[in-house]
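User: We ran a pulldown and think these components assemble together. Before we commit to crystallization trials, I'd like a predicted model of the whole complex to look at. Sequences follow.
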Amino acid sequence: MKKNFFVAFFFIALSVFLFSMVVGICFGTERIRFAQVWQALFFPENAEPHVAIIVKDIRLPRVVLAGLCGALLAGSGAVFQGFFRNSLADSGIMGISSGATLGAVLSAMIPLGLTCTSAFVQANLTALCAFAGAIATALIVYAVSMFHGQRGDTTAIILTGTAVSSFSSAVTSFLILVKDKELYRMFNWTLGSFNGKGWEDLFLLLPATGIATLLLFVCSGFLDILSGGQQTAQALGLNLTTARRLVLASGSLAAATGVCMGGTIGFVGLVAPHIIRRIFSPKHRLLVPASMICGGIFLVLADTIARSVAPPSELPVGIITALVGTPFFVCLLFSSKGDNHA
Amino acid sequence: MKKFFFVVFACLFFIFFAFPNKNPQRIVSLVPAITETIFAVGAENSLVARTDFCTFPAQAMALPSVGGFDGKAISFEKIIAFSPDLVCLAKGMHDHLINPLKSRGIQVFVSSAENLNDILDEIKSIAELTGRLRQGELCLSQIESQIECAKTLANSTRKKRLCVYWEVSAKPYFTCGKKSFVTDLLKILGAENIFSDIDQSYPQVSEESIVSRMPQMIVFPAHAKNNKTNFILERKNWKNIPAVAQGKVFAVDGDLFSRPGPRIGQMAMALAEILVRSGTNP
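Assistant: Here's a predicted model for the assembly, 624 residues in total across the polymer chains.
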């Protein structure tokens, strides 16, 4: 009976995810009728050229990117919340978001001459630097926390993450002050946006997305064992050091990839796991994949609103996730009597 | 005779002290466009400090700087150290400095020029403030004649209104909206900004709206002498846009077009030249 419920839940969730993607492809700053969208997707040779480009090369990759970004951020949030046993844990707590932002800002300081050698590097400089910044931050946090009395315990990691995050934010603010002309672009990065993102950005981050998703699924298997406490986990034969490294690697890689896709989009990593925990299951084996689907739906719809609400202008998607997510989340907290996550 | 000299001296003394020179003698400018305006109206002798971004005209570089343009990076005590009687500020960026300056009896001029009329009004205001009315009028008439000249030049080759996309930055795409002076200049020169329907000065727009509005010409302000147009011409999604298909993508001097000041006539001329090039290119 329960198994049927889980299967039905995933089936419905995936259907809603697909439906949200269809909605995302149908709506945008330009009004395009559904018949035209259908034609552009499946019979592009018969469609108007600019409509085919808008639907296939602008909206489609963007919707897929938003879906994957939401899934990765929510997945990393679910893993971090489970591992740190902290309801507020997400990519921000490890300093990954601020590390990625610092990397992106630093990319603006690199002289053009140094990157001219490779067209690939030049085109994706910001994303590559942001990714490097995020991964470097995660490594620094882990390395510093290892010097703590209890080597690598969760409190040490959280405290180090918060400290490194503040440090990265301070350096970012300083660099933006020094280089005013990059202010607009970086301001947007801090609010999150998929504006101008296309197939190239998606393909660039697809390998990292695949690896991160695989690692998240692997972690979800032993997070339930860890939730009983470290001693119980050790008694059950779990290698704590390996588990810790794997959780940090999967969460950090997922968050770094998500941040590179759309900038520092808040709320998704925090909200999606909480929603799933309350309406579906607190078991990580189910929670992680369900949170990923929920995060994907949330971000695809938020991006569709960001594109459609003030045509031909766009709003940064981070504004929408906070505006829509906050009241929804507060309602959920008050309406549900379930226990808060330990 | 002695009495006569005494009366003349007394009169001069009275005039000097009863009607002192009210024009500011120590100006600190925190706005690059206003620094240019002060030089344009010939009041540069009263200018005592500038920002790091006030790099035009070259003589401005000889003045001491109070720091960067960003309001948060400017030290209030550094401004006070110059004992200014007038400080020129930018609206929004330097709002937090207005009250502290006023409370110390220092006059402030808040620049908020966005469109062409604002720019011309500010030149007039600075000329009045510095007591350089004649030079101000001269500067304005020079701008007027440059704009007229640009208009004639632009209209000489083109009959039809040209749709222009002005790319301030890409990924995310920022452009000029209705309130920007760029939109005004394009309109005067017989062209049209494809985003002139957006109220903001510098809105963020979606890529699909750029593609669907089919601009016939794309202009972008190039900074750091990087004026290669390839990065726009090579965008796959833009291949059907007439401007890209016909190679009508042009770079303009980013420093010039980021300062809404007295070089507005020069900007009009630069734009007119591009419009002519665009018209003659097949």
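Chain A has 15 helices and no strands. That may be worth checking against your pulldown data before setting up trials.

User: Thanks, that helps.
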